[in-house]
Amino acid sequence: MSTTGKILTGIWTAGAIVAAFLWLPPAQGFRSPEAARIVVFHVPCAILTFVAFLVNAAYSWLYLRSRHPLTDAKANAAAELGMLFAVLATVTGSLFAMEQWGSAWNWDPRETSIVMLMLVYAAYFVLRGAVEEKSKRARLSAAYALLAFPAMVFLIWILPRIVESLHPTNTLFSRSGLDASYRITLWSFFAGLLAVFVWMFRLRLQVELAEARLRQQYHRDAIAEATLAGEIQ
Amino acid sequence: MNRSSSWVHEALAVFAKDWLLELRTRVALGAVVLFAVTSVVASGFALAPPSGVPAEVKAALLWVVVFFAAVAGLSRVFVMEEETRTADSLRLAVSPVGVFVGKLAFNTVLMWGLCVVTVPLYLLLLEVPVRSASLFLTVVMLGSTALACATTAVGAIVAKATTRGALFGVLSFPVALPPLLVAIHGTKAAWLSEGAWRVATGDLQVLLGFILVIVPASLLVFEHIWSE
Amino acid sequence: MNPLVTYMITPLLIWAGIFGYLFWLDMRLRALEKRLEEEARR
C-alpha cells in the first residue's frame, strides 16, 4: 500500500463516518431509529471477523503444504486481526442490542457464534503460547485451525435451528430491507475497514520480519564476539 | 496384503495394543469414570427430585458431565505415547492413518464405556422421566461417538505441546461444541417430547453429518501433527 | 446545532486516533528496517 493509498483510506473512512451521521435518514422500524446508524459500523466488523477466520484457515492450509515460516506468520496475523474485529463487532452489537432489545446479551445465534469464534481464537493463541519450538508451533496451530474450521461452520449452520434469532436475515441484501442509503454507507465503510485490515496485516508481517532480522543480527554479533574473544586468547 | 486393508490391520493392532495397556494400568478409564461418577453423585445431591429442577437443565447437565469426563481422559492415548517415548517406534511401525483410526476407535470405546457407567447412574439418581428410551439410547451412542471424533485429533495436538496443563479442555471445547449442543437438544426431545423420533431426526442427522465431516478433516491434518 | 454532529465527533476522533497510530507505526517500522539494512551492510 502506498502512502497515498493510506491517506485515501483515512479520508474515505472518515467520509463514511460523516455520511452515517449526516446523510443517512433515521432508520424507521427500529425501536430507536437514530441509534440504528451503528449498524453501519457493526456489520462490517462482523463480516471482517469471518473474513479473518477464512484467511486464517486458508493460510493454515497453505502452511501445511509449504512449511514456509512467513505463511505461518500470516495465519497468526489473520487470527489476531480476527480477534480484534470480533471484539469490535461484539461491543458495537451489544450497544445496539441494549437500545433495541433491552439487554446487552441475548444468546442470539449470531452472538453465540461470535463468542465461539473468539473462543477458537483464544484457544489458538493459548496453543501457540504452549509450544516453544517454532516449526512445531506453526504445524500444530495450523492443524488446530483446520480442525476448528469445520466445527465453526457446523456451529454457525446448526445454531439457528436450535435457537430463535433476533437478527434480521436478509435486510442487507434484499431490496425490501433497509433504505438503499444504508447499504451504500455500510459497504463503503466496509471497503475502508477492509483497507485498514490489509494495512494492519502487512504491518504485523513487517514487525515479524524485522524481529527475525534483529534476532539474526544479534546471533551474528554474538558469534563475531565469541570468535574475537577466542583469537585474543 | 493390499494397501487399503493394511491400515485396517494397523488400526486394529494399535487399538488392541492400547486396550491391553489400558487394562493393565487403567489410567484413562480410572480418570474418566471416577470423574463422571463423582460429578453425577454431586449433581444428584444438589438436584434430586424435591429441588424441582426442570428436565431441560438435567439434559444439559448430563452432557456437561460427559464432556468434562471425556476431557479428563481422551488425550491420554497420545500423551501416553509421548511420555513413555514410544511415539517414535510407533511412527516407524505404523502409518499415520492406522495410528489415528486405532486411537479414534480406542477413544470411542472409552466414551461408550463412560456412558454405560454414567448414564444409568444419572437417570437413577436424578429421576429423569424418559419418554423414548430407544431415541435416548441412539442420541447417547451418536453423541458420545461424535465427542470422541471431535477430540481425538485435538488430543494428538496437546500431546505434542510443551506445556500441556489444561490445554486439552481449552482446545477441545470449541471443536466439541456443535455435537454437544445437538446432543443436548436431542436428549431433551427423547425425555420430554411427544413423537420424539420425529422431533429429533434433524439432530441425529446433524450428529452423523458432524462425524462424517470431522473424521476426514482430522485424518487430513493428523499426518502433519503426528510426523516430526 | 444538529445533535448528530456532536455524536459524530466521537467516532471521528477514535478513527483519527487509530489512523494516526497506524501511520506512526508505519513510519517507525520503516525507520527500523532502514537502520537494520545499514547495520547489515557494515
How would you describe this protein?
The complex is a heterotrimer of chains A (233), B (228) and C (42). In chain A, 79% of the residues lie in helices and 0% in strands. With 233 residues, chain A is mainly α. Chain A is globular. Chain B is mainly alpha-helical and 228 residues long. In chain B, helix 4 runs parallel beside helix 7 and helix 6 packs across helix 7 (133-160). Chain B starts with a helix and ends with a helix. The model of chain B has no long low-confidence stretch (mean pLDDT 87). Chain C has 42 residues and is an all-alpha fold. Chain C is built from one helix and no strands. The N and C termini of chain C lie far apart (61 Å). The mean pLDDT of chain C is 83. Chains A and C meet through helix 1 and helix 6 of A and helix 1 of C.
Number of strands of chain A: 0
Could you give a short account of the major beta sheet of chain A? none
Question: What sort of overall outline of chain A do the alpha carbons produce when their principal axes are compared?
Answer: globular
Poorly predicted runs of 5 or more residues of chain B = none
Distance linking N and C termini of chain B: 27 Å
Structural class of chain B: mainly alpha
* Integer average pLDDT of chain B: 87
As residue ranges, the low-confidence spans of chain A are 170-176
Count of helix runs of chain B: 9
Number of domains of chain A: 1
The description of the largest β-sheet of chain B is: none
What Rg of chain B do the Cα atoms give?
18 Å
Order of helices and strands of chain B: HHHHHHHHH
How large is the share of residues in beta strands of chain A? Answer: under 5%
**Termini Cα gap of chain A:** 52 Å
Helical fraction of chain A equals over 70%
Q: Treating each run of at least 4 consecutive H or I residues as one helix, how many helices of chain A?
A: 6
The assigned structural class of chain A equals: mainly alpha
Assembly of the depicted chains? heterotrimer
Largest interface: A-B, 31 and 35 residues
